[in-house]
Amino acid sequence: MRSVIVLALILVTVALIGPMFAPHDPAQIDIPNRLSAPGTERVLGTDALGRDILSRLLHGARWSLGLAFLISIIGLIVGTLMGLVAALGGKLADWVVMRTTDTFLAFPDLVAAVVIAGVLGAGTSSLIFALTVTGWMRYARVARGIGLSLKTRGYVVQARLAGLSPLAIARWHYLPSLLPSLTVVWTGMFARAILGISALGFLGFGVQPPMPEWGTMLLDARIHMRSTPLQMIWPGLAVVTCVLAINLTGDALRDALAEREHHA
After folding, report:
1. Residue 37 and residue 219: Cα distance in Å, rounded?
2. Which of 28, 75, 121, 166 is the most exposed place for a label (fewest CB within 10 A)?
3. Could you tell me the fold of the domain covering 44-263?
4. Please, is 15 exposed, middle or buried when counting C-beta atoms within 10 Å of its C-beta (0-12, 13-18, 19+)?
């Protein structure tokens, strides 16, 4: 558990301060040194335009991890609010929210995100909107399920009889119970957001050049995949490592939550 938390903190640190340690300008073009192999000056080599791959990876972490964090947080807020509306708003609100949720869940996340991004056009704002629209439903289902189970609890009934508003009940009685489970869901959605950002970037719908992002780095390297495969291996390895670390963190949190409930 501790090692997983340490690994997660390392990811956050890389995203925040990694660009400060980049040895070169990630956008600096150096045609004479294009496609160079890893060496002492260019630790991971250069891409087709002679740009330093290590510097682009470090700067790309801010985009890939930062945007994934933003997207997953927005999805958490929207999904939690929708779930609470379904749990506290009566049968009609519950029916509307759940049918809306089921409709969105009927489409594969990535396919729907590609369609939305394609309609809106390539760019960071389109990417954020597409992945947020396709990522809030799981939070809503979890929040609704826990909310309905809490609705008949004695302390919630007493709070309602005491005249507390639904907003106050949600703030003081629902959110503390929702937070552990939603945190576990959030770790999984954070990892899915990283994959989504990289996939959209690889398809040309993500962060636009010259900004470095891991998915766009894969897109730029695909032409030279046979001659210089390391160009694709480095950003691909960064995506896999981050997703694996975040998923392991989620598994550790889930196990800790299950153990706490077992002893409760």
Report:
1. 19
2. 121
3. MetI-like fold (1.10.3720)
4. buried
Query: Residue 20: which region, alpha, beta or left (left: phi > 0; alpha: psi -120 to 50)?
Result: alpha
- Inter-CA distances, 209 with 123, 204, 220, 224, 239, Å: 10, 10, 10, 18, 19
Q: What is the pLDDT of residue 197?
A: 92
pLDDT tens string 2-22: 555 666 667 677 777 777 888
Count of positions (residues) in the chain: 264
Q: Where along the chain do its domains lie?
A: 44-263
Which pTM does this prediction carry?
A: 0.86
Instruction: Return the structure tokens found at 195.
Output: 């994959």
Phi, psi of 52 (to 5 degrees): -70, 125
46: β partners:
52
Rounded Cα–Cα distance for residues 194 and 64 (Å): 6
Q: Which pair of structure tokens corresponds to residue 37?
A: 């192999």
Please report the sign of the dihedral spanned by the C-alpha atoms of residue 66, residue 205, residue 186, residue 141: positive
